[in-house]
Amino acid sequence: MSIKKLTDVASIKYGYAFNSKNFTNDSSYPQIVRIRDIKKGFSKTYYNGEFKDEYIIHRGDLLLGMDGEFNIEPWRSEKALLNQRVCKVEAKEGIDKNYLYFALNIELKKIEKKTSFATVKHLSANVINNICLLYHSAAADDMQCLELGCRRSIKASITKINNIDNILRQTKR
């Protein structure tokens, strides 16, 4: 086991400051993800304007809110646009996305508890980039091969829980 900076195990894409004049309720345009949309996994606000492809996110992408509660959740809807104060965290090759989700969630809650605020808590890119996670390399030794079966079982359970969570969220719409 070792400690790794988040940027060693994941790439981070920060959202763009889209012009709110172009926000619309017209669902023929792409959804735009704001902080309030992260937990529910979908948006009813759309963007009628030009944008770069680098700000498109897809179902399953891990999104992190940088204001208020520092939530991290997989996006549960169709493709959308990554708005300011929201970032996408993508596991690098060889890093388990589910592990990243749970490890980062724990660290974010620790940061949230320590962060002072006047009205709204803010998470800076510098703080995100320097988050440290306990990292366990799957190829380090034979003992880890035994643990791999356990991790796969846990991963399968997490996937089932996420599927149930998706169904419950959709029935609440």
TrEMBL record:
Key words, A-Z: DNA-binding, Restriction system
CDD domains for this protein: RMtype1_S_EcoBI-TRD1-CR1_like
Example GO molecular function: DNA binding
UniProt KW DNA-binding keyword: yes
Domain Type I restriction modification DNA specificity span(s) in chain numbering: 3-131
The protein's name in its UniProt record: Type I restriction modification DNA specificity domain-containing protein
Domain of life: Bacteria
Gene Ontology biological process: DNA restriction-modification system
Keyword Transport part of the UniProt annotation: no
Annotated family: Belongs to the type-I restriction system S methylase family.
Organism: Lactobacillus johnsonii
Cross-referenced InterPro entries: Restrct_endonuc_typeI_TRD, Restrct_endonuc_typeI_TRD_sf, Type-I_RS_S_subunit
